[in-house]
Amino acid sequence: MVDGFAAGRKGLTAVDREMLLGWREPVDGIFEVQRKEHKEGMRSSC
């Protein structure tokens, strides 16, 4: 699924494509949320 998404995004830089394709493998484990960002602190690349 990630491969198809990346293939459809021709404008990705090599670094962005590498990061995106790194999401193919799931990460299993326990995670702790330490803080919540406010909407003003969130950014989107879309």
TrEMBL record:
Protein name: Uncharacterized protein
Lineage, uppermost ranks: Bacteria, Bacillati, Actinomycetota, Actinomycetes, Kitasatosporales
